[in-house]
Amino acid sequence: MCGILGLIGGVEIDRFNEALELLHHRGPDDSGTYHSGPFHLGFKRLSIIDLKPEANQPMFSKDKRYSILFNGEIYNFKAIRQELEELGLTFETSGDTEVILQAYIQWGTDIFERLNGMFSIAIFDFQHEEVILARDRLGIKPLFYHNSTDSFAFSSEIKSLIHLSDSELQLNLDSLFSYLCFRYSVSGESLFSGFFSFPAGCWMKIRDSKIIKKERYWNLSNYANMELETDHEKIVTEVRKLLEDSVKRRMVSDVPIGAYLSGGIDSSAVAAIMAKNADSSLKTYTIGFSDEGFNEFSFSRIVSNLYGTNHTEITLNSDDYLSTLRELIRIKDAPLGVPNEVPLYLMSKQLKQDITVVLSGEGADEIFGGYGRIFRSSEDVKLIEEWKNRDFSLESELDLRLNQRYGKSFDSEIEMFLHLYRYNSLDTLEYLFGESIVNDFNHGPTLRKFEEVFSEVEKLDFQTKMMYVFENLHLPGLLQRLDSTTMGASVEGRVPFVDHHLVEYSFRIPNYLKMRWKSDPPEGIIGADSSENYDVTKWVLKEACRDILPEEIINRKKVGFPVPLQNWFGSGSLNDIRSKLLNGIIVESGLISREKMETFLMEENDRGTNPMLVWMLINLEIFFEEFPNLQINVDQS
Q: Which CATH code for domain 2-218?
């Protein structure tokens, strides 16, 4: 796990080194650079596998034709190494970096399909004067790039690219609205115009500072469109096997390792499998708030006590939270997407005292139907159509619930999905930011990205489309969160539920085994109300883990990471932040007029109905303060 930086073009060496040093938190153990003509390579190392100096980067082939920068971990590198050794190749190190480099020399870009792991890779061919970039299938490890007229630069974090760029920084308004609606920039275009996130599951060839070829080597739709499995017992057995294999692979490390343990089914399953396979007492960590009802300590203790883990509980208060918000925004180069990023970062800083690698439960909800309130809502299409035929009457309890959740009918599945998935309503955003900006957003790159992903599984049912979109467009936001909150503390986060074998198989499991009815499906109830009341979400995962987890954990309803925003930003408590927002950059730039901001904050102070939007606006304000040279050009006509 590391920070990588590369540039093809001209640059002052001191400036390049300054840009590399901005990645120090990603790799405090070692640093390396190499400069040859137009090629500039930089590396910051966090030592995990093969701690010897010979494993440092940039690493070169024996003939010096090739060099590699690699951030991540390859879990099957030993098998690939053995295959290469059988072909007569020899190795000077015992880690995965040299295996990737030699495998590329042997097989070219076909190697990326063979890799099981998380990675961002840059391979330099000095003879042909070209660079190959590649990223893992689901985008676990970050990679950003910026292409100007005379240079191409890439990095693990945008801040280094900004430092190297002579371009004027411009706010990308479509990405801004993507953040406000979906918590991060879905399209791959960052908040800085011209700075992009490298697409997951792809490789790219760069020559003469230009992208000359781009290819997608993995696409989940190839598996989602396959015939479904039908044998229930076989499915449960296979899920357990795949999960155990995934966890075991991610336990390989030459440095201390541990696990997040919230007490939910996902982290508990990972911790249980780790504890059963660990050579010594597993270190586990959980975090919560001093506010009553805002921690899950009692549930994490159940699992910890069952497996005798060396368990640490971390308690935060509002002062800890608010003072850390700016620090993490600075690390992430973006406003935070979810309130629990701060506690995750603070937990990572504390666990760094004991361990360097931590396993986390991200990715289970997307593949096993954990977002039941949304996924079950796919079954409301018929109810909405019948309600429309009744002229949207408000006579029955069902009518009132349909009006409350939807308020209208929809022309397409994607329109209905986006209505459910947005974290802030378009009406509220249009009031604050203006009609023209919202109209542009509704026809921009973010919405086109949703349409593109929907089209990849257009023949499948609506519910499966929802799950497919969540895996492709929701999960990346969570993985960004994991990377910034762990690497900001020089900790490597690993995610067993994002193993591509497990993900591929999950899309061959019928949805009725992911969200299983307790008896006959209820009638006249919307999906959001039936979920977890009349069904069991993630049923197949729970069945697969029934022999290793107690009933209290198996039968828990889904609970998001609780952060007491309502207590801090809700009714009567906005005085401390009102002045900041009214006199800050958001208002000064014209993004939101002072009058509209004041009206919104007054209403929020009285009602406290939308603390999440207040939190996001605070994030944006701090983000703008951290990037004072960012130009915000808005047409508020």
A: 3.60.20.10
